[in-house]
Structure formats: C-alpha cells, structure tokens
Amino acid sequence: MLTVSTVNVNGLRAAAKKGYVEWLAATEADVVCLQEVRAEPEQLSGELRAPAGWHVVASPSELKGRAGVALLSRVEPTAVRVGFGVAEFDRAGRYVEVELPGLVVGSLYLPSGDVGTERQEEKERFMAAFLPYLVELRAKAAADDREVLICGDWNIAHREVDLKNWRANQKQAGFLPEERAWLSRVYDEAGYVDVMRALHPEGPGPYSWWSYRGRAFDNDTGWRIDLACATPGLAERAVSAVVERAASHDQRWSDHAPVTVVFES
C-alpha cells in the first residue's frame, strides 16, 4: 500500500507547538505534503527540519513568513524539482515535487486570492501557468512509466457540495465561477482525478478547512479545498481517502486537517 497525506500547517513552528510533531510521529503515511510552512529551514528545530526516518525537500518563499511548501518521504527521492519553470512563482514557496519509484508527487500551495486585489490577479496568473504544466507533467510521467499525484491546498472549492455556505460565497475567492471552471479543466482537459470525490461522490464535504472565527469547526461550516489529484491509473488504485478531522476544536493544530489517501501498490 502507498499512503500519502497532505496538510496546510498554517505555520509549521506554530503547528509544532499544538500537535503536529506528535501527528507526524504517529502517521503511517509514506509521503507527507506540507503547505504554508512559513519558515526558512534554518529557522526550524532539528525535529522539524529533519525528522528521523524522513527525507525532506523544502521550498520556502523568498518573502519571509509567507507561503512555503515541503515534502517528506520515507524513501529517498531520485529527483527533486522546485517550482514549475515560471520565474514569478519558482521562489514563491508554491510548488515542489519529487520523483519516487513509479511516481511523481507534488506539494502545491495555490494562491488564495482576494477579489478585486493584486492577490486575485496573482492567483489567476498562477492558474494560467500551472495548467499547461500539469498537462506536460502527465505526458512526461507517462513516457517514463510513472503516475502523478498533486497534493495540497488548491484554494478552490469545486462544487456546491464542497463548502457549507456556498450561496453566500459565490462572489468570494475560492468559489468564483472562473476558478471552479479552471479546476474543471484540471480534471477534464489535463486528465487528473480528485481522489476524495471519486471515492465519495455525493458529499457534502468532507471539509478540510474551517475558519478559526466563530464556531465554524464545531458547526462543520467548512470548505473542501485540500485535494489529492492523481493520474487515472493511480486513482483507480485508491482504496481510501479520509480527512483526519480533530476530535474537538482545542485539539486542532492548524485551521486545516490532513487529507490522507491510500493506494494499492
């Protein structure tokens, strides 16, 4: 079996004080994808920078305290790629990938956006550049007899069943018609499969992010924006996909919860 987890840690140093270290020690995952690390490697303690039993690849943002992605694997990668060949984003801590036997895994932190601001324009530029890369990556991997799995915080809820209050969010970043259409192109044109939705087609949710404001977590007023998107051959081998939702609000170590998928080898 191959088990892969992805989670936006909302600041790795903060998460470490709330339970991330214990979660990592207990996980049965073979690969862990992290987003919003928000730290340079030298700012991290040894157990965070190089946890025992893991090979770690990190891509911090050149903007201090922002973004940052990392990828932990129990097997040493045969190759590593930071970014996807677009100068604006290659040092922005948005994407890192590794090659493992028969598999390419990417950790993605897609910009969150904010309607009417430069942040939304940045998100749109990222999406425009990333889709062709996904097409290229799938073709190259197929030529090398590899599958592809892109995990991370995609910052887009695809359908109404992917967020609790969809009616109130139709003009908000993360649920804009053009963002949802772009994610449809990831599935329909680039040919990737949303593993969670393939295994759980009906919804609602399961949600993976809840605001810290109000009682969003207690009321399960969430968004499903943390996705594991696989090439069809790998997706067909998926046997389980779960959100590791904390038992209670005070046991959360991020505003996101890990999404864990299991594939038959």
Automatic annotation (TrEMBL):
<dbReference type="GO" id="GO:0008311">
    <property type="term" value="F:double-stranded DNA 3'-5' DNA exonuclease activity"/>
</dbReference>
<feature type="binding site">
    <location>
        <position position="8"/>
    </location>
    <ligand>
        <name>Mg(2+)</name>
    </ligand>
</feature>
<feature type="active site" description="Proton donor/acceptor">
    <location>
        <position position="153"/>
    </location>
</feature>
<comment type="similarity">
    <text>Belongs to the DNA repair enzymes AP/ExoA family.</text>
</comment>
<feature type="binding site">
    <location>
        <position position="36"/>
    </location>
    <ligand>
        <name>Mg(2+)</name>
    </ligand>
</feature>
<feature type="binding site">
    <location>
        <position position="256"/>
    </location>
    <ligand>
        <name>Mg(2+)</name>
    </ligand>
</feature>
<dbReference type="GO" id="GO:0046872">
    <property type="term" value="F:metal ion binding"/>
</dbReference>
<keyword id="KW-0479">Metal-binding</keyword>
<feature type="active site">
    <location>
        <position position="109"/>
    </location>
</feature>
<dbReference type="InterPro" id="IPR037493">
    <property type="entry name" value="ExoIII-like"/>
</dbReference>
<dbReference type="InterPro" id="IPR036691">
    <property type="entry name" value="Endo/exonu/phosph_ase_sf"/>
</dbReference>
<dbReference type="GO" id="GO:0006281">
    <property type="term" value="P:DNA repair"/>
</dbReference>
<feature type="active site" description="Proton acceptor">
    <location>
        <position position="256"/>
    </location>
</feature>
<feature type="domain" description="Endonuclease/exonuclease/phosphatase">
    <location>
        <begin position="6"/>
        <end position="256"/>
    </location>
</feature>
<feature type="site" description="Important for catalytic activity">
    <location>
        <position position="226"/>
    </location>
</feature>
<dbReference type="InterPro" id="IPR005135">
    <property type="entry name" value="Endo/exonuclease/phosphatase"/>
</dbReference>
<feature type="site" description="Interaction with DNA substrate">
    <location>
        <position position="256"/>
    </location>
</feature>
<feature type="binding site">
    <location>
        <position position="153"/>
    </location>
    <ligand>
        <name>Mg(2+)</name>
    </ligand>
</feature>
<keyword id="KW-0464">Manganese</keyword>
<keyword id="KW-0460">Magnesium</keyword>
<keyword id="KW-0378">Hydrolase</keyword>
<feature type="binding site">
    <location>
        <position position="155"/>
    </location>
    <ligand>
        <name>Mg(2+)</name>
    </ligand>
</feature>
<protein>
    <submittedName>
        <fullName>Exodeoxyribonuclease III</fullName>
        <ecNumber>3.1.11.2</ecNumber>
    </submittedName>
</protein>
<dbReference type="Pfam" id="PF03372">
    <property type="entry name" value="Exo_endo_phos"/>
</dbReference>
<feature type="site" description="Transition state stabilizer">
    <location>
        <position position="155"/>
    </location>
</feature>
<dbReference type="InterPro" id="IPR004808">
    <property type="entry name" value="AP_endonuc_1"/>
</dbReference>
<feature type="binding site">
    <location>
        <position position="255"/>
    </location>
    <ligand>
        <name>Mg(2+)</name>
    </ligand>
</feature>
